[in-house]
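Lab notebook page, bench 4
Experiment: in silico fold of construct C2
Operator: M.H.
Input chain length: 188 residues
Purpose: comparison with the prior construct
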Amino acid sequence: MTGRTWVFGYGSLVSPASLESTIGRPVTAADLVVAHLDGYGRRWNYGSMHLRGDWIHEGTDVRQGLVVSLGLVTADSESCNGVAVRVTDAELAALDWRERDYERTDVTDRIRADRLAADDRVVTYVPRPSAVERYELARDARRAGVRRSYRDLVAAAFAALGDDHVEVYHRTPPPDVPVVDMSVSMIG
């Protein structure tokens, strides 16, 4: 018997509403488990390939600026909290499309979670080097920002997990770009 596939979410995929909008079904308690990913740290380091935003920050009017989201970096001494969600092959394909500028990475041997069987597989999404480079270039040009609504969605999702999960999430280094209210458009 082949094990099940789980996806480790550490940002917007922690939000049931965000996850459900991609996989097209409600996420049940049987499909979700709180998890920790060892050897990775959460960072604001993903520069979107497809989203651009307009905002005003400290008197500067930014048009078609880069939208920044959460990503991961390898970091042997760190651990990242989140959730593991059981998915079907079709749901994994839908997540691959959503996270298409991230690399799907097998992290089975780095996950700590209850209810995972020995033959289960766990994957997560790590920003491609091009996404990190895009972020760094836009950050340095002062044309990158984090959507306040995205940041708030992720914080609320961690708060809903209970215990101290939101406090652990808030230990993520803060973004080094502004958190702003922005209108977002899709490109490409």
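Observations: The radius of gyration is 16 Å. The chain is about 25% helix and 45% strand.
Next step: discuss at group meeting.
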